[in-house]
Every structure is written in structure tokens, then in C-alpha cells.
Amino acid sequence: MSEIKKKKRIFISACEPSADSHCAALMNAISKRSEIEVEWVGVGGKKMADSGCELLAETAHRAAMIYNAFGQVGFYIKLLQRIRTYFKSHRVDLVIVCDSPAFNFHVAKAGKKAGAKVLFYVAPQLWAWGSWRIWKLRRRCDKLACVLPFEESWFAGRGVDATFVGNPLFDGISIDASKDCRTYTGYDPSRANILLLPGSRAAEIKLLWPAMQKIAGRISQRWPGAKFTAAAVDEQKLRMLKENKTSSPEYEYTIGSVTESARRADLALVASGSATLQVAAAGCPMVIMYQSSRVLWHLCGQWLTRTRYLSLVNILARRKLVSEFMPYFTSTEPIFGKCVRLLSGRGRLIKLSSELVELVEPLSAGNASENVARMALEMIEESESSKRKAKNSRFASR
Questions:
Q1: What was the pLDDT predicted at 318?
Q2: Which residue, 113, 99, 92, is CA-closest to 200?
């Protein structure tokens, strides 16, 4: 007769497409190795739902950045109230929050108030801006799973129980410098393959896709034989790209792995974010760009930022390894100029390819989903052990 599994309830929160993917992979990893039966409840996206999570609300498709998020404040206030109400009426054994600290700090606070342990998966980038929020993290986080190597010591030095778990972007992806560093044998800029990655959020695409098309158009005028591929994270975003095509050249469109798409490209034009690390893993040279509100940037953005560089690639390298235009505001001319200089120099492309692969190779060590799954199960067991000890202590004192 098989042993009956203990049933536990885990509340899990994700607010972006990438977090939805990470959480779904984590759920699957826990389900495969766990000796407990897990009831998953939370907020997130389709991938989490497909993996068995009962969603109180779908949040991944609402992902926004900075000023684009202001219009959704009402939705998230009401959602937080629903979550607090849920915690009051349901026992929760563990709360896992993934990225999006502006929302998930509140979810974590509600979880702690309900008596649950809280695991943060993907550390909030307090080392970049808003470091004063570390006191919030210490109070609302029992364990922190870091996905960038330097974060473990940064957070541990500030009193947070932090562990580097690897980067979930590279779960199942092998990075091999001997294979992924480009030689550009037979490369000809007049027949270059250029990848355009305008982002995973609708707000990013609206801002960056027109600008990327301008740059592609200029490159096409210089080298009419160049080929362009535009990549999207899903069918909805792919439709946005096609419906908002404004000018020549013609594009091939693709959905799927950023790393695989980048392996077929000579150069990538990338929206700042986690995709830059995936492009780096493919050994593909890149130029990074992002757009923001000029007013908000000058009023507060540039003063809140505490890192010399803004893109993950340059932050990891601790130098300007790739060109970043963040924010670029109006003119795309400097971005076009940088693309031309890279495409014109085979030696520069080879050198940059090698440096990018070497930079991200450590991020693929281990398996982030498996490592976080182990942390989560240990937290549940520790919580159970503490409850048993407290119960025995009360019984002994009678």
C-alpha cells in the first residue's frame, strides 16, 4: 500500500510573463520530487494555470514598467485585498513571490501576517536602486533565491538569508564557450542576419518596435541584402509586431526561444531586460535600448539609480561591454551608428561574442528550478518541525 502524501497549500505570485514561466517550472520541479501533495493557489499567467495553479487573477498579461503601471494601481489594490481575504480564510504553508517587488512586497507582508513562511524567488534589484527597501525585505522574506551570482553576498551582507540558485533562463540550456563563441567565418555585412527583440510587454513593444523598425530601415538602405527577424514571446505579441509594421524592410517573424533565435543572428537589437542574458548565452553581439518618460527620468529616475550601467549584461561585466541606450528618448541615429560600426568589423563581432559567452557561462551552473524546489520543500519541513516542537513544548508544560 503506497504511502499517503501529506497535503500542503502553497500560494505563488507572479506578475510578468517571465515570472509566469519561472513559477510554472518551479511548480513542476516541486511536483516531481516532492513527497507531499501540493495545492497551488496564486496569481500569475497561463503557464502557471496549465501547471495546476488555481489563479485568483491573471496578472502576467498586465505586465508594465514605470509610468505605464500607474493606470493599473486600482486593479492591484483590489487584488491585494482579495489575497488578504484568502489568507484569512485559508491555511497557507508557504508563500512564494517571484520578482515584481512593487506588488510582491505587499503579498509577502500579507503572507507573513497570516503566519506563513515567505520565499522570494528572483531577488529585487535593490543594489540598483531603492536600497533603502532592504529593511522591508528583511522583515518580509525568510529566504531569498538569487539568480545573479553577486547578489548572494550583497544581500547576505545586509542581513538577508540569500542563496544563489542559478538562473532559470538557462534551465535546460547548455552554454559551451567552445561551441557558442562565434568565428564569423565567411561573414559579409551586406548579408548580415539581424534579430530584433522589442520586449515581452505590450508597453515595451509600443515604445520600442517603431524605433527598431527605423533602425532596421536605415541598415537596409546601407546593406539591401541584410535579413531581419523580429521575435515575440507569444502569439498576441506577434500580432502586435505584424499589425504595427510601419516601413520596409520585410521581416521574418518567430516565436520561441530567444537563445535559439539569437544563435541564428549576427547581431541583435534588444530591449533591456532578461532577454539580454539569453542573447549573450548565444554568443550574439548586441545593442541594448530602452525608452522611458523623459519627464520622470529627469525628475527621479536618474537620481534613484545607483548603478553605473543599467543593462544586466553591463552590470554583470562591471564595465561597458555592450552599448546601451537607456533611455534613448527621441533620436535613433546614435543607435544606428553603433549597429553599423559593429556590423562593419568582423574582429569586433568575434571579440564581443567570446566575451558575452564567458560572462554568462557561470549563470547556467546547476538548475535554478530544482534548487528553488529544494529550498521550498526544506522551508515547509522546517516550518512543520517548528510547529511540532512548539506543540510538544506546550504539552510538556501542562
A1: 87
A2: 99
